[in-house]
């Protein structure tokens, strides 16, 4: 538990805070070692009242976002800062008590330094500087947080909440409630769909070839899709396709939640990076996908992503208005939901995982008047019976996501890169192309990752070679921008080909 200071100490800190704000960080840097401020009693009352709800579903969701999957933030190694290379190992007490936004790093030559890191926008982290003491870093972080009207702070003044003291309460709450699954009631699902149908999906086009959402990691419709796939939180990503040792699984969101370290890290970042003092189920689910279950702060969780429904809707609206579409690997339902939002007449798809298939069937019952035809099989074996206007999918990336151990999973049936390419990727693409009407479009969301290349899989290259051999003509590539502030730097490509008319 956090130590409580005396009342005098708290007043002194308030003063100090005001002075340091006034004179800038140089002053704060000269102040000695940090002392924990007294916790804000009102914040604690509010925290307590938040915890008196019966079900996690009724905790209000405040403004929040989830970050992009693990990436290492490049920190300047000059000015006495430490490089990012040394990962932070926590002790349990530190996890609860350390100020928000402060990361201790050190290198073999120098003393430890404290870096203040602020999440300035979805997927964007801002480096605020490195400091001699945690307190200095915490003050810098608070100052930035106030500018962003962050509701949780290290050194709160009247009416603000103190982050670290909330952690223990949240931890106890979620330990007793269990994993914060999304709501599943019919009424909740209907409301979600009603709201989604009000969206103007045309607005997702930022220019002719660019699609943009405020936050790709948390896009409209995701929650509705997850509601039908509670098993998605038990899915693991793998660390590449190591040929000798076989794939190494990362912890799933459920495993991260189940470990004390994973849950505490996730709750910390709900406060410090998502600005969600309630640590709502929605925010926490995202954070559990980001973190692993270790005492090291390194990301490392299984970021299982859905294809954004509104992006799919915008693509369908443009390439297949009122038409028939085929999705060879349906996945979590982002494109199925997108077909409804984009005014498609009929959606045909394959999905071999039995749990995911069941979820998609349930989702499709909600989506009339969209006609839905789902097939529980691998798409390498499936011939579409009618002509389609668009064949659009995001195929599994060999074995980087471990959806299920069933034999129908492409990476289980074809366990080597070579066999997977010839046995799954090629026939799937050939059958998609066959299904297309003359003048119809093949659309694929694929990227080659470093881990793929290391294990000899160049998904992007292979897909291009196969589709070219199938005789399609490539059209300009669409870019799906990752955040609202991205200017095309981090976009993900969506490739488009056209089948010759006549
Ligand atoms: C398209 S999803 C990847 C997640 C993705 N971002 C999405 O769009 O939801 C990959 C899906 O392909 C499925 N899959 C695996 N083997 C397959 C096969 N042989 N044929 C078709 N789909 C397959 C997996 O079960 C998984 O649901
Ligand atoms: C290691 O720490 C020393 C002293 O703080 C610093 O001068 C040096 O630049 C650091 N090196 C790296 C690689 O961070
Ligand atoms: C939807 O958004 C587009 C582009 O942002 C705009 O041109 C169009 O008028 C909007 N449609 C409706 C019904 O608001």
Automatic annotation (TrEMBL):
Domain of life: Eukaryota
GO molecular function list: DNA binding; site-specific DNA-methyltransferase (cytosine-N4-specific) activity
Top enzyme class: transferase
Catalytic activity of the protein: a 2'-deoxycytidine in DNA + S-adenosyl-L-methionine = an N(4)-methyl-2'-deoxycytidine in DNA + S-adenosyl-L-homocysteine + H(+)
Keywords: Methyltransferase, Restriction system, S-adenosyl-L-methionine, Signal, Transferase
Residue runs in coiled coils: none
Signal peptide: 1-24
Protein name: site-specific DNA-methyltransferase (cytosine-N(4)-specific)
């Amino acid at each position: 538990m956090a130590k409580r200071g005396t009342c005098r100490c708290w007043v002194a800190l308030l003063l100090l805070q005001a002075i340091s704000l006034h004179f800038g960080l140089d002053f704060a840097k000269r102040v000695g070692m940090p002392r924990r401020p007294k916790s804000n009693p009102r914040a604690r009352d509010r925290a307590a009242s938040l915890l008196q709800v019966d079900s996690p579903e009724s905790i209000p969701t405040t403004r929040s976002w989830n970050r992009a999957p693990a990436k290492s933030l490049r920190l300047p190694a000059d000015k006495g800062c430490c490089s990012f290379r040394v990962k932070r190992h926590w002790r349990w007490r530190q996890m609860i008590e350390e100020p928000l936004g402060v990361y201790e790093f050190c290198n073999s030559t120098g003393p430890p330094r404290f870096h203040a890191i602020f999440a300035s926008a979805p997927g964007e982290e801002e480096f605020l500087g490195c400091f001699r003491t945690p307190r200095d870093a915490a003050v810098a972080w608070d100052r930035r947080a106030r500018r962003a009207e962050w509701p949780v702070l290290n050194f709160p003044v009247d009416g603000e909440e103190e982050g670290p003291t909330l952690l223990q309460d949240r931890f106890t709450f979620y330990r007793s409630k269990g994993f914060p699954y999304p709501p599943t009631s019919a009424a909740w699902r209907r409301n979600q769909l009603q709201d989604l149908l009000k969206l103007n999906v045309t607005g997702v086009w930022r220019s002719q070839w660019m699609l943009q959402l405020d936050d790709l990691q948390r896009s409209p419709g995701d929650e509705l899709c997850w509601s039908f796939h509670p098993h998605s939180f038990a899915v693991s990503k793998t660390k590449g396709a190591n040929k000798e040792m076989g794939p190494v699984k990362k912890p799933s969101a459920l495993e991260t939640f189940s470990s004390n370290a994973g849950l505490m890290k996730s709750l910390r970042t709900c406060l410090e990076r998502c600005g969600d003092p309630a640590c709502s189920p929605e925010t926490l689910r995202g954070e559990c996908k980001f973190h692993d279950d270790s005492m090291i702060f390194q990301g490392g969780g299984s970021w299982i992503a859905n294809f954004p429904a509104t992006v799919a809707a915008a693509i369908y609206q443009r390439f297949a208005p009122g038409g028939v579409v085929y999705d060879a690997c349906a996945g979590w339902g982002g494109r199925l939901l997108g077909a409804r939002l984009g005014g498609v007449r009929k959606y045909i798809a394959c999905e071999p995982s039995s749990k995911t298939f069941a979820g998609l069937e349930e989702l499709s019952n909600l989506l009339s008047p969209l006609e839905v035809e789902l097939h529980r099989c691998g798409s390498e074996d499936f011939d579409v019976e009618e002509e389609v206007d668009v064949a659009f999918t995001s195929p599994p990336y060999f074995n980087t996501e471990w959806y299920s151990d069933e034999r129908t999973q492409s990476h289980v049936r074809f366990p080597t890169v070579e066999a997977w390419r010839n046995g799954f990727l090629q026939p799937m693409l050939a059958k998609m192309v066959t299904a297309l009407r003359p003048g119809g479009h093949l659309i694929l969301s694929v990227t080659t990752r470093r881990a793929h290349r290391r294990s000899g899989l160049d998904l992007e290259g292979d897909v291009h070679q196969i589709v070219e051999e199938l005789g399609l003509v490539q059209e300009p590539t669409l870019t799906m921008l990752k955040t609202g502030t991205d200017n095309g730097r981090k976009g993900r490509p969506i490739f488009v080909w056209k089948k010759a008319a006549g």
